[in-house]
Design goal:
Length: 254
């Protein structure tokens, strides 16, 4: 069957994280963090290409050395979405664009395939993302973990750093959903998105995805059983290294 729309996965990467400078090249299990992300993306069969988008020559050189395709971008971008949009404008052959966070080293290739197939199968969907239940409901209280609530059709009603919905009636069980910050866009939806100015709710919560909702654009949410941990801090990186080491020991012992 002929594919309906070529798809590209773009990984935005910058050096200057305030909490973790140089994070993309921080070594984890003898590989830079960003390389782990890139390798996972390359395993997604629905992606026709994987590109690292950066404004930093240190990141670009390292990525070239491990064989990645790299696009150099402006240093003035305020977000990863702006960065991938610059690449998408030039790469007109791709109808579908996935924005894959450079700090999601265990992102599942199967999830990326689902993003692409969802966009190919339903042309009414312009933006798609993912969420999964928190393993521990107490984690939902953290403002660093973004929550989402969805309607009956699987579209986002709201994203928040607050634990939503509020449990006013404590006899009703609540399943808090953690938003996983990976997005799939139709090319036009992406280019429209970056033209809009930041919106009031977006600025209040510091959550870029609210810009779509405030402009009347639906964001479809794929509900997964599990998600993949991001790396926000050095402590996260050390925890991930221990996790990978345990997984490797289990493989060796089989």
């Amino acid at each position: 069957m002929k594919r309906k729309g070529k798809a590209v996965g773009i990984i935005p990467a910058r050096w200057g994280s305030t909490r973790f400078p140089g994070k993309p090249l921080h070594p984890i299990a003898n590989k830079p963090l960003l390389q782990h992300v890139w390798e996972q993306c390359c395993r997604a069969q629905s992606l026709d290409s994987v590109i690292i988008a950066t404004d930093d020559m240190r990141i670009a050189k390292a990525a070239f050395d491990w064989g990645a395709e790299v696009a150099m971008t402006s240093k003035t971008h305020q977000s990863g979405t702006d960065r991938i949009a610059e690449v998408a404008r030039k790469c007109r052959q791709f109808d579908l664009v996935l924005n894959i966070q450079g700090d999601e080293p265990l992102v599942e290739p199967a999830l990326l395939n689902r993003f692409v197939e969802t966009l190919r199968s339903n042309r009414k969907i312009g933006i798609v993302t993912a969420a999964h239940p928190f393993e521990n409901a107490a984690q939902a209280a953290s403002p660093h973990q973004v929550k989402v609530i969805v309607d009956g059709d699987g579209n986002a009603l709201y994203f928040s750093r607050y634990a939503i919905p509020f449990p006013r009636n404590r006899t009703v069980p609540i399943k808090y959903l953690r938003h996983q910050g990976v997005y799939g866009f139709r090319r036009k939806a992406l280019l429209d998105f970056v033209k809009w100015k930041p919106t009031p709710l977006e600025r209040a919560e510091a959550l870029e995805q609210l810009r779509a909702l405030e402009n009347g654009v639906k964001v479809h949410v794929l509900l997964m059983k599990h998600g993949s941990p991001g790396v926000d801090t050095l402590a996260d990186a050390k925890a991930l290294e221990r996790r990978l080491a345990r997984a490797n020991r289990r493989r060796v012992s089989r």
